[in-house]
Amino acid sequence: MQDFKPLNVTIVGTGYVGLGTAVMLAALGHRVTGLDVDPAKIAMLERRELPIYEPGLDLLMADAAGNLRWTTDYASAIPDADIIFICVGTPPLADGRPNLAYVESAARSIAQHLNGKPQVIVNKSTVPIGTGDWVARIIEEHANRAHENRYFVVSNPEFLREGTALHDSLYPDRIVLGGHPFALGRMRELYAPLILQTFPAPHYVPRPVEYTVPAVVETTLTSAEMIKYAANAFLALKISFANEIAGLCERVGADIEQVASGIGHDKRIGHRFLAAGAGWGGSCFGKDTSALVSTGADYGYDMPILRAAVNVNQRQRGVVLEKLQKHLRLLKGKRVAVLGMAFKPDTDDLRDAPAHDFIARLNQLGATVVAHDPIAIERARREWSHLSYAEASSAEAALHGADAVIVATEWKQYRDLDWNRAVRAMRSPVLIDARNVIREVLAAPAIVEQIGRELVETADEVYA
Ligand code: UDX
Ligand code: UDX
């Protein structure tokens, strides 16, 4: 690689975002230190085990192992770093606002170990607009006076999706950088192999044929912070829009998938993020839309479109349960299988997963729940101990003897399931397919409810 200069990079917080970023930068050739306050996590990483599930991450971590080291110690991770990323979590507080305590403590610890050479501190956690300046102030207060003006805060929001994190970080649509021009120059050096796409593509995350290079958007701290929120809010809005239209499709007899395809061909709209279903979950959309609405409220500015997107998403979870209740009537004593616990396929992340709310409500109504997930079931054992459900070892086992099933996550296993066979093992064949995974009318007698569409014979059969 021409003119490539490896930089010393420290990543504070090795969660979904931090770990992915650390491994990606090490794979690009930088010398990366991953720091986390959780010694158990660091011990696992030192043993080259991953604390999270993300497809391909184990392979990339093995390939980049020579450039990676792990620590819990700020004193050994900060002084030599050219660039320091803050990737600690910002979980929502009870009022929906993000908890910035971790960002604050990371900033303070970083400040105490800055070394007086120009160092760049990058906010990658999703933080409320204005946090970049606030972090700069915390650092100013806690750094050695002599080092003043020798550090720069940058906002470099993350757009990767869990489950496709490697693909999204190696072949991004754009890289957004906000902050002081000196620091942005440093960031361009860091990302040069990505910006120019000069790194050799790993065979397990091949470069898409049509992919060229990412757009680089350079802007101010505040605009960069706003870009992250506006992007997530817009995606959330698209999903809620699809779900709202899906409800009307059900009432007038239209098919949401054909409608989404019909509008998606308009390049101004696009096909993506129009899949109707159980609504969005995960750590970002819910938190980011609420944060934007709260920021608006702080400034006396109402954001009715975003409030509506949040309400439609909330309503959608109720829609799924209403469909179940329509067929089972009394839920007390009924056995309901829930397929899929993760908030989406290919991850073990359970944050704000629709399945959580389904199980909680079924518990409340006295139903017995049997749940299955190909990956997240173990994490659920730790994080969902407040819920009552039996674990099933397979989708088929979950359906055995059930009065109904809710498909909450569109894992490939559920798309590929032999539904005709599985249904025959149920006590009553009520299928609430909240992710539209069943693609054909079943030969076995069954009630199938989907979102925004009804299963019909394919056109060939209908018109034969
Ligand atoms: C990320 C972003 O940072 C967050 O802003 C965004 O909204 C969602 O995605 P994520 O990586 O998913 O968060 O969070 P999590 O998996 O909880 O990881 C955070 C890590 O930071 C944990 O490993 C935690 O131990 C660590 N941490 C937390 C620190 O190292 N220091 C702290 O002070 C607090
Ligand atoms: C999202 C953003 O896409 C990413 O850019 C940002 O960095 C973090 O937040 P993530 O939460 O990992 O990523 O998953 P994503 O694929 O966006 O899905 C979010 C939720 O929306 C999931 O629950 C998914 O099931 C749902 N979804 C997505 C739909 O219901 N319909 C769709 O068409 C797409």
What is the fold's blueprint, element by element?
Blueprint: E1 8-12, H1 16-27, E2 31-35, H2 39-46, H3 57-63, E3 68-71, H4 74-77, E4 83-86, H5 101-112, E5 119-123, H6 131-142, E6 151-155, H7 165-170, E7 174-179, H8 181-195, E8 215-219, H9 221-252, H10 256-264, H11 285-298, H12 304-328, E9 335-339, H13 354-364, E10 368-372, H14 377-383, E11 390-391, H15 395-399, E12 404-407, H16 412-415, H17 419-424, E13 430-433, E14 447-449, H18 459-463
Parallel strand pairs: 1-2, 1-4, 2-3, 4-5, 5-6, 7-8, 9-10, 9-12, 10-11, 12-13, 13-14
Antiparallel strand pairs: 6-7
Helix pairs in contact: 1-3, 5-6, 9-11, 9-12, 11-12
The protein binds uridine-5'-diphosphate-xylopyranose (UDX) (2 copies).
One uridine-5'-diphosphate-xylopyranose is lined by residues 158-162, 232, 235, 239, 273-275, 277, 279-282, 284-285, 343-344.
**Helix percentage range:** 40-55%
Mean pLDDT: 95
Strand order of the largest sheet: 3-2-1-4-5-6-7-8
Shape: elongated
Second-tier CATH architecture of the largest domain:
3-Layer(aba) Sandwich
Relevant CATH superfamily of the largest domain: NAD(P)-binding Rossmann-like Domain
The percentage of residues in β strands lies in 5-15%
Q: C-alpha Rg, in Å?
A: 24 Å
N-C termini distance: 60 Å
